[in-house]
Amino acid sequence: MVPTDSECIFCKIVAGDIPCARVFESDTCLAFLDIAPVNAGHALVLPKGHYPTLMDIPVELGGDLFQVLSQVGKAIMEVTGADGLNLMQNNYEAAGQEVHHAHYHLIPRFADDGLRLWPQTGYDDPDEMGRLAAKIANLME
C-alpha cells in the first residue's frame, strides 16, 4: 500500500483533488510544472507515495524516479531551448524544503538567466575533510 498524508498538498495533487499542469505520470511517479517557477518549464518530479525526505524513499523507487527525471529533463530542455538543467532536491526546512513530500526540481537554465549557485568555501582545518569522510564512510559499513 502506498503511504499518503491527507494534509499534504502533493498527495492531494497525486489524488487529483488539486489540479496541476501534468507533464508525466506513471504508476509510481508524477511530474508537473511548478506554479512558482525559477524559469519557465521548471518541473517537479515526485514519488506518488508520501515520503517526507529523500532518505525515506524506498530504494526500489530509485530506478523509476531517475528514469522519469531523465525523460522529463530531456523534454524540458528540448521544449524550452535551455542551455542546461539543474536537478535540485531539498531535505528538511534548514535546506529549504517547504513541502514535506520528497520531490525533485528540474530547472531549465539559460546562459544569460542571471542565476548563480550557492557560494562555496574550503575547509579551515586541512585535516577536517579527511576526518569527516572517515566518519561518514564508517556509517556506510
UniProtKB/TrEMBL annotation:
<dbReference type="InterPro" id="IPR001310">
    <property type="entry name" value="Histidine_triad_HIT"/>
</dbReference>
<dbReference type="GO" id="GO:0016787">
    <property type="term" value="F:hydrolase activity"/>
</dbReference>
<protein>
    <submittedName>
        <fullName>Hydrolase</fullName>
    </submittedName>
</protein>
<feature type="short sequence motif" description="Histidine triad motif">
    <location>
        <begin position="101"/>
        <end position="105"/>
    </location>
</feature>
<keyword id="KW-0378">Hydrolase</keyword>
<feature type="domain" description="HIT">
    <location>
        <begin position="9"/>
        <end position="116"/>
    </location>
</feature>
<dbReference type="InterPro" id="IPR039384">
    <property type="entry name" value="HINT"/>
</dbReference>
<dbReference type="InterPro" id="IPR036265">
    <property type="entry name" value="HIT-like_sf"/>
</dbReference>
<dbReference type="Pfam" id="PF01230">
    <property type="entry name" value="HIT"/>
</dbReference>
<dbReference type="InterPro" id="IPR011146">
    <property type="entry name" value="HIT-like"/>
</dbReference>
